[in-house]
Amino acid sequence: MIIARYLIKEVSHALLAVTLVLLLVFLSNQLVRFLGYAASGKIAASAVLHIMGFEVSFLLALLLPLGLYLGIVSTYGRLYADNELRAMQASGLGMLKLVQITISLACVVTAIVLVLTLWINPLIAAQKDKLISQGLTSGNVLDNLEPGRFQSSGDENRIFYVEGITRNHHQARNLFVAEQKNAASDETGNAWTVLSAAKGYQVTDPVSKDSFVVAEDGYRYEGTPGQNAYKIIQFKKYAVRIPDQTMEMQHQAQEMIPTHILWQHYFRDVRNAAELQWRISMPLSVLLLALLAIPLSHVRPRQSRYISLFPAILIYVVYVEMLFVARDWVEQKTVSVGIGLWWVHGILVLLIAMAFIWQCSFVRKNQ
């Protein structure tokens, strides 16, 4: 059908445009955050692109439902404002046929989101966790240092500075390390150890696998700022243990669990139940939001084509926030697993029914 192909093409173009813009916005925000981690020494700069690549799949699973929703509202709103949809309806395009055309495209997007949430994203989350655990994001501490700049360690207890560093990041020149002592082992809670050395490098103990920064030809100062009681030690070689540093992970442990494992333990752990319901909610939201977008896109003659975007965005924000709240309630055992996240979708179904009833009554009044 020519009309069906035309509508699907217009909505698809809007879907791709909205999703691409939103993806770039969210990726830019994530990039700034990860660059901040890299600048503070929490992750290696070489790992930023790897992590950003992992974020694309998770963002697409969240943004595709919104992209289709806004694509339908904006496209149908424009067609209503230009009287194109009314001309199509006069030519025999009924509401039921419009719903069928919209749902056919929504089913394609639903399938994509379903594959992402149920299979691809858990695998990617596991790979990201493996990347972090293998130390690519912490690795050699010298990889995270930028010459001529003071940088803190991942646990915020050490300050590093190097004047120069070799191209392969294996050795630093004029190394400075300031470490605050543990308050439990110090009466003042403000004692520092300052180390200054001509050069330094990192080694890993073959037995314990602990990482050490080895400084050569330098001095070690111990004391509390503002007090005269301090020690100065000259050394030929001194090693500073670097504790394991891992970036605060965005994804919970449940997000790495395969879907079939979540199903097997669905009634044993509320966190697994909440995660599985969340994964199902994403593709389900595609269909529900696509249905809601049809009556919301209805624009009266001579009205702006963008008039329905504000209520549509407001409904989406409330809907998603309610899903997040419902997920937390399931994990905290505030609501039962049987109720879970389904009550949020039930409210949206009622809203869809009310919106269609309102549109049908409005059409009848104006016929």
Describe this protein's structure.
With 367 residues, the protein is an alpha+beta fold. The chain is 54% helix and 16% strand. It contains eight helices and six strands. The protein has a six-stranded antiparallel beta sheet, with no helix packed on it. Helix 1 runs antiparallel to helix 2. The longest helix is centred in the N-terminal third of the chain and has 39 residues. The radius of gyration is 29 Å and the shape is elongated. The two termini are 26 Å apart.
Give me some keywords for this one.
elongated, 367 residues, six-stranded antiparallel sheet, 54% helix, alpha+beta, 8 helices
Quick recap:
The chain has eight helices and six strands. By secondary structure, it is of the alpha+beta class. The relative contact order is 0.11.
